[in-house]
Amino acid sequence: MASARYPIREPFPGGLEAHTFQLAHRLRGRGHDVVVFGAPGSDESLGVRPMPALPPISAAARSDVGMPADWFLAEHHAYLTLLLDLSRNGGRDQGFDLVHNNSLHYLPLAMAPSLPAPVLTTLHTPPTPWLESAVRTGDPSRLRFAAVSGFTADQWRPLGADATVVPNGVDVTAWTAGPGGGRPVWSGRIVREKGPVEAIRAARVAGTGLRLVGPTPDRRFFADEVAPLLGGDVTYEGHLDHRCLAAVLGTASVAVVSPCWDEPYGLVVAEALACGTPVAGFARGALPEILTPECGVLVAPGDIAALADAIPRAAALDRAAARRRAETHCSIEAMTDGYEALYERMCA
């Protein structure tokens, strides 16, 4: 089960969609029979079964002044309909040995006990109010969790979600090493918590320039706070698919990763390392788990001057060491191994 709101297709809206895409393909490649439930418009190669659309809301219901937003209702209806169907028809007799929940919605957790097959939920984010409520009120004997990093697992454990750590991974055969030497790159969703403004300011201080790549879901933030800082050798390159982004990362001397929140994993770090590009970033969330002194330079969160100093220091690191770190610690094969082992334990 993936996002009901965002299609799983390149250029991916975020790491969750990329994770679901890669894992489904890898599992199929290893001989597993995988059904993906997701948003309409997803990549045809996944054979996604689209989640149910929200039927028309009656005039009487719309007159309720407390009616939630349409997107909230649409997500609620999609997951509720799917889970009710799985609870009635999705047991082992229908061929489903296990349900892997990759969504950020509360209903797959709340309704897990009603499903005949065991349910695994991957925790992709820090605790959120909706998910925390579902975890706290759920049946611990029926809920199983994976977390994308040790940091994220530690955040959830006090709330009752004892998660097995399965680090995210990237396809190191697709994200190939490049020559480097070019302007630094910042990649990811261009939203406040990812820190694009901080990256631009650090690059200006360092005098290195910067290329920004990624979707702009918060158009107002981009227009008001990011666009005014662009110009000269600081440019926005658009939202690129993985092939084009890998080419850009491979030519960069450094990847700047400047989260202003506790990053649950940081897929952009793994992508950069696979391209042989060292990282300069803030030591927040899971970044210290991924990076070693051989492939990255981390500084105190929010310290623009220190990040500016880290950019040329990271550029001097060995690109081969960055690539080796991706191959040994950040590969999609290692991630799939972890999930296969977890599936086997759950289905035993």
Automatic annotation (TrEMBL):
Stored Pfam families: Glyco_transf_4, Glycos_transf_1
Domain Glycosyl transferase family as annotated: residue spans: 187-318
Recorded superkingdom: Bacteria
Keyword annotations: Glycosyltransferase, Transferase
Classification via SUPFAM superfamilies: UDP-Glycosyltransferase/glycogen phosphorylase
InterPro entries in alphabetical order: Glyco_trans_1 (IPR001296), Glyco_trans_4-like_N (IPR028098), Glycosyltransferase_grp1 (IPR050194)
Keyword Transferase listed: yes
Glycosyltransferase subfamily 4-like N-terminal domain residues: 13-172
Leader peptide range in chain numbering: none
KW Glycosyltransferase (keyword) present: yes
Record's protein name: Glycosyltransferase family 4 protein
Organism: Pseudonocardia xishanensis
Lineage: Bacteria, Bacillati, Actinomycetota, Actinomycetes, Pseudonocardiales
